[in-house]
Here is the input.
Amino acid sequence: AQTPVKVTVTGAAGQIGYALLFRIASGQLLGADVPVTLSLLEIPQAVKAAEGTAMELDDCAFPLLSGIEVTDDPNVAFNGANVALLVGARPRSKGMERGDLLQANGGIFGPQGKAINDNAADDIRVLVVGNPANTNALIAQQHAPDVPAERFTAMTRLDHNRALSQLAAKLQVPVTEIKKMTIWGNHSATQYPDLFHAEVGGKIAAELVDETWLRDTFIPTVAKRGAAIIEARGASSAASAANAAIDHVFDWVNGTAWTSAAIPSDGSYGVPEGLISSFPVASRDGKWEIIQGLEIDAFSRERIDATVRELEEERSAVRELGLI
Ligand code: NAI
Here is the structure.
């Protein structure tokens, strides 16, 4: 029998965790023929709740789920891990300054990065979901010098899927007709969803919509969708975030011709090397590659530069705080 893949999920007792774990256990993360063992990492106060979720996972009798552990010790959780989904993070509370937020998350993602460095399997792949995702991924990566840098990624797939959905609704086409969608930059309100490379039925999407809609409706709707969900649901996106995490890892492992993911920059498209920034990416042989050779016009350039500038500011801030 195939050796199970160990998948570690942090923040397992949270909302995204609850929407994510059952799908992983059912085979949707890696493939319907890949057995998994789950490791659920939580803070001590939430271990009991995570154990409750583990009981429910047991009660599903998933054929592919070969084991579950629940722990509050990162060294245990990441021991032998092949995939790590870093979901648990410190949310911004009212009146919290950015520096405090980065500091609090540095206290989570630094030690988790070190625990991954010291304990994970050689093929470890890390997806950071917890916000600020790009910079949390950078912090974890910087504490894991023995892990290849490109194994640390952050999630912009939810933004990508939101962009597909908004464009499909506007053009009244199925989402499957849209190709080459791209989210650039930071998973934040500065992100840039790009319709100048997206194609619908072989035509450039930006040419199928008017510029006012693109600029004043599409871009802000995608960028602020998280806030709109909170407003409507009274809670932040959970099932859609879990779905995007599944999409990201599935494509990373199984390959894709084009999607969006935040991965360490190699300097492509003027994004400073080392920033974990969203790009148009393909995945081949289990590795992300930045899609090269796209022409970037002035409209896109300005927006890519703005979101990348924000990532640089976050990197400077965590450097100044001594977090990396
Ligand atoms: P939640 O508050 O329901 O759950 C977070 C869980 O993380 C809690 O159970 C908490 O105990 C746990 N946790 C906190 N510190 C931890 C640590 N050091 N180790 C292990 N577990 C820890 O939050 P929810 O809704 O599940 O969201 C999780 C994160 O995902 C948030 O940071 C949120 O902003 C982010 N997010 C990111 C998205 C993206 O597109 N990148 C989309 C939606 C949410």
